[in-house]
UniProtKB/TrEMBL annotation:
<comment type="function">
    <text>The purine nucleoside phosphorylases catalyze the phosphorolytic breakdown of the N-glycosidic bond in the beta-(deoxy)ribonucleoside molecules, with the formation of the corresponding free purine bases and pentose-1-phosphate.</text>
</comment>
<dbReference type="Pfam" id="PF01048">
    <property type="entry name" value="PNP_UDP_1"/>
</dbReference>
<dbReference type="GO" id="GO:0005737">
    <property type="term" value="C:cytoplasm"/>
</dbReference>
<dbReference type="InterPro" id="IPR011268">
    <property type="entry name" value="Purine_phosphorylase"/>
</dbReference>
<dbReference type="GO" id="GO:0004731">
    <property type="term" value="F:purine-nucleoside phosphorylase activity"/>
</dbReference>
<feature type="domain" description="Nucleoside phosphorylase">
    <location>
        <begin position="23"/>
        <end position="269"/>
    </location>
</feature>
<keyword id="KW-0808">Transferase</keyword>
<dbReference type="InterPro" id="IPR035994">
    <property type="entry name" value="Nucleoside_phosphorylase_sf"/>
</dbReference>
<keyword id="KW-0328">Glycosyltransferase</keyword>
<dbReference type="InterPro" id="IPR011270">
    <property type="entry name" value="Pur_Nuc_Pase_Ino/Guo-sp"/>
</dbReference>
<dbReference type="GO" id="GO:0009116">
    <property type="term" value="P:nucleoside metabolic process"/>
</dbReference>
<protein>
    <recommendedName>
        <fullName>Purine nucleoside phosphorylase</fullName>
        <ecNumber>2.4.2.1</ecNumber>
    </recommendedName>
</protein>
<comment type="similarity">
    <text>Belongs to the PNP/MTAP phosphorylase family.</text>
</comment>
<dbReference type="InterPro" id="IPR000845">
    <property type="entry name" value="Nucleoside_phosphorylase_d"/>
</dbReference>
<comment type="pathway">
    <text>Purine metabolism; purine nucleoside salvage.</text>
</comment>
Amino acid sequence: MNAKTIDITTSFLKEKGFLHPEIGIVLGTGLGQLVNHLTIECEINYTDIPNFPVSTVEFHSGKLIFGTFENKKIVVMQGRFHLYEGYSLQEITFSIRVLRALGIQKLLISNAAGAINLDFKKGDLMLIEDHINLQGGSPLAFANVSEFGERFTDMSEPYNLNLRHSIVEIAKNQNITLHKGVYAAVVGPQLETKAEYRYLKIIGADAVGMSTVPEVIVANHLGLPVLAVSVLTDECNPDDLKPVNIPEIIAIAGEAEPKMITLFKALIKNI
């Protein structure tokens, strides 16, 4: 990781028209519909961006999109990167550093996750209030990290309180169920065993997924306020565990996404 690489990528994107974005959005698995509400000014495939990883997951489209959303300039990552694709934690979060260098002041993240808390149901939304990093490393664990921010980054409140309070009020006003909970990040790509689901519940997780936490750590490292919402796509009951059905998970994410878009639209309008 070095500043020159970030500068090269940022300069390239500015030349392509990615100018002065206020807000960055990362769209997770099955969550690509938000861009249909965007007045697009420019978009580019990850494959065409210098130094960018390439999304290898078939249901991640792999585009960076810039435009206007609720009268704000935003840049959207339509598709993200994961450890299970073979990338390092530094590669996974390179894009967050580039978004910050482009000028974003807030970061909104979405993901698809499994519900460990069995009071939560498929198709519900969960506001992430805290997380557990079970990915076996840190995106800040590299030699010259201090060139980019404080090495020993505080994580006492990784998800911005003001943004959280705002979206909770919006959910109440819109009559949208928005649970609050703890997200556990695992490596994947295999799904969890019954014993692992029991373990996750014991240690305090309400939902589990394979992303988000590295991006949130780097956002905090950069002093970038961040908010994250999970779309709960399956119920992880170890006493009644069904074989994983990926098409069903993608379908449930798509069905629940309009609720997330409603919340994000109102939040961005109020920022």
